[in-house]
Structure formats: structure tokens, C-alpha cells
Amino acid sequence: MQTAIVLLSGGLDSATVLAVARARNFRCCALSVHYGQRHHAELAAAMRVAAFLGAHEHRVMGVDLAGIGGSALTDENLAVPESPTAGIPITYVPARNTLLLSLALGWAEVAGARDIFVGVNAVDYSGYPDCRPEFIAAFENLALVATKAGIEGGRFKIHAPLIDMSKAEIIRTGVGLGVDYAMTVSCYQADAEGRACGRCDSCRLRAEGFAAAGVPDPTCYG
Q1: Euclidean distance between CA atoms 46 and 52, whole angstroms
Q2: For residue 153, with 0-12 CB atoms within 10 Å meaning exposed, 13-18 middle and 19 or more buried, which class applies?
Q3: Residue 6, beta-bridge partner list
Q4: Cβ contacts of residue 211 below 8 Å, gap of 6+?
Q5: Residues 6+ apart with CB under 8 A from 159
Q6: Stretch 148-160: mean pLDDT
Q7: Per residue in 69-123, pLDDT tens?
Q8: How far is CA 98 from its chain centroid?
């Protein structure tokens, strides 16, 4: 059984990706990152999901993206938009997926793994530039030239199985693989108990996804 590193935020998409990786017979090592996000409850959700879906190992690593600022997800002085906005929203976290994938890449190299799973999506999403296929392809090429394993002939594969799926398709896939979405937290401003605001972009996309999938929404709202 091959080992894969799976980025696990504790949200709907990452929980689905962990289930997909497990269904593909990978030994899944889940990686969650505390990057200074205001919605700390998602890390507790990640622990629940990792245990429920049988991750071989679950690690939480830290990166100080709050020190960079520039995002409503890391700076509580910036308001999280509660209605759709034009362009890339202020909830975009500069370099977040680049840094998260870099941590996963480092762990993969040390663990002898060549597969990394990430739950980025470029269909029902907020328009973040680091959720697009171009970014995934570029990072995979970076991994080839930036690592000892790559220089010595190894090749890393960045799996983004949800990237072309609608939120409804993601939910149906997860339900079919036994994901309990009541365990997940997607809200950008969830309270300490993980209760969702029901107004932010992430809540809107999540609710629309459950409605389109014809699946009861298990989200706990504050």
C-alpha cells in the first residue's frame, strides 16, 4: 500500500478528498495547518474527520500567515464579506496553498511518499488563483526540481480529484464514500463550537451544494 499525504483543513472538500484517497487504496497521512486563521474550529473538525475516515496518521503544523496579513481570514480587523463580491475576494489568503503544499511536499519526501492530495476546486469556488489547474500543474513541476527526490529521479503527483467538480458532485461523491459532513466546518467565521454564520461565501457555496445534490444539509448554524 502506497502512502499519500492528504491536506485536511476540516472542511467539506478536504474531507471528501481524504475519503477519495482512502478509496484509491492509499495509506493516508493527513496534514492540517494552523496558519493563523480566524476559524479555529476547522482544526478540531479535521481531527474528527481524520479519526472517522481512518487516517494512518494526522499531524498539525503551523505557519504564521497572520503575520503577512492581507486577508479577512487571518486579520480580524478585516470583515468577512457576507454577500457576493466582484473579483478575488478579501478572504483570499496570499500564498496559502503554495505554503500548505510545500509542507505536504516536505513531509512526503521524508516519508518516502510520492502522492499528495489536495481539495482545491475551480468550479463552485471563490475565484482564488491557487485553486486552478494551472497552479496544480505548476506546483507539480516545482516539486520535480525543488526536491532531492525529484533530482534523483522520483516524481511527485499532486492529486486534485475535485478540481473540475461542482459542489453538488463533490457532496454526492463524499456521501457515497461514507463522509459524515456533520463533522466538517466550512464557515469562514465559525464560532468556537464550529457553528456556521450562514452568510459568508463559503457557507453560501456549501448550502447551495447540498440543495443541488438533494442531500439534507447537516450544517450547524449559530
Answers
A1: 10
A2: exposed
A3: 30, 117
A4: 217
A5: 4, 17, 21, 115, 116, 117, 118
A6: 95
A7: 999 999 999 999 998 888 899 999 999 999 999 999 999 999 999 999 999 999 8
A8: 12
3-state DSSP: the chain helix, strand, coil percent, rounded to 5?
40, 10, 50
* Confidence at 126, pLDDT banded by 50, 70, 90: confident
Residues 145, 70, 203, CA angle at the centre, nearest 5°? 95
H-only helix segments in the chain:
12-23, 41-52, 96-111, 133-146, 148-151, 167-176, 201-213
Residue 5 pLDDT: 98
| DSSP for residue 62 | E
Q: How far is CA 116 from the centre of its chain?
A: 12
Instruction: Report the C-alpha gap between 98 and 160 in whole angstroms.
Output: 14
**Predicted pLDDT of residue 35:** 95
For the segment 26-53, what is each residue's pLDDT rounded down to a tens digit? 999 999 999 999 888 999 999 999 999 9
CA-wise closest residue to 184 among 76, 86, 50, 37: 50
